[in-house]
Design goal:
- This protein is of the alpha+beta class and 130 residues long.
- The protein has one domain (2-127).
- The chain has helices spanning 2-13, 70-89; strands at residues 19-20, 29-31, 41-45, 49-54, 58-63, 93-98, 102-107, 122-123, 126-127.
- α1 runs parallel beside α2 (70-89).
- The longest helix is centred in the middle third of the chain and has 20 residues, at 70-89.
- The protein is globular.
């Protein structure tokens, strides 16, 4: 299971920042919200991918379809999740929308991003002000 590959990396990179559910319980990891308007981040192990619920905004799928071994796939997926969470917790991921009406995210460099701003955008620490 990807969970078994990911958990040691989560513990190493984000010690004490998440709660872990018991075996067979989904979501298996929850990162409590830093800001109440953002919401918790949850990780689900769907067998061949990790689904990340990004607070009250959207979700994403972390998978790998390269022609590599199962172990290598799980390692690649785990690395992608860790990289994304690192960006999220550093306020380099902008979130918008809702689960009811569609949403999304984009990874940015907040210091240099010049793209258009949507209404009600958030980063992990709260409303995105730029």
């Amino acid at each position: 299971m990807i969970r078994d590959t990911l958990l040691p990396l989560l513990t190493e990179r984000f010690p004490g920042r998440y709660t872990l559910a018991g075996p067979g319980v989904e979501p298996f990891v929850t990162f409590p919200a830093e800001h109440p308007e953002v919401g918790d981040v949850q990780l689900h192990d769907d067998g061949d991918e990790i689904t990340l619920i990004a607070g009250r905004f959207t979700h994403g799928h972390f998978s790998n379809y390269d022609g590599i071994s199962l172990v290598e796939k799980e390692q690649a997926i785990a690395k992608d999740v860790i990289d994304f969470l690192s960006d999220l917790f550093a306020d380099r991921v902008v979130l918008w929308g809702s689960h009811q009406g569609g949403g999304g995210w984009r990874v940015i460099d907040p210091a240099t991003y010049e793209g258009s701003k949507r209404r009600n955008e958030y980063v992990w620490s709260g409303p995105w002000e730029r």
